[in-house]
């Protein structure tokens, strides 16, 4: 963590990042461990997640708010899935379908929120980061370690899967 703190330019940023670290590190470890089932891999995922959070620190206005908590969980899930993918050598499509990540309660009226919660973690992450957190495809590409075309394809697949979930429920967009 000391190395990460040295990357910040102002004392206010350092304090804010330290608050984020203290507030969410255990939750992030829990999220990563549920996906990876390995203490060492979970710790690696959390460390990588904090590096990504550090790079996007200005996007989160408050430390203790639902958006920041969701962002920390999503980034951690993404990093854990990346580690899982590298360990298992699964294709992105196989991994997207196989890993559902951590079930997180989402705000909403039930229909859309429930359908979103049933999506694979990668799809849910992409949709939430894009449409709930407001990241554009360029920012998503950097955050997810993908190129823009891959992010657009991921978003297309995620929207298609969400549409299918809603149609199963008899709810249409």
Task: Give a structural overview.
This protein has about 170 residues and is an all-alpha fold. The protein has one domain. The protein has helices at about 1-5, 10-35, 40-55, 65-90, 90-100, 110-115, 120-130, 135-145, 150-170. α2 (about 10-35) crosses α4, α3 (about 40-55) crosses α4 and α7 (about 120-130) crosses α9 (about 150-170). The protein is globular, with a radius of gyration of 16 Å. It starts with a helix and ends with a helix. The relative contact order is 0.10.
In short:
This protein has 173 residues and is mainly α.
Features:
single chain; 0% strand; 173 residues; globular; mainly alpha
Overall domain count: 1
Amount of helix: over 70%
The Rg value, from CA coordinates, equals 16 Å
Distance between the termini: 44 Å
Structural class: mainly alpha
Principal-axes shape call? globular
H-E order = HHHHHHHHH
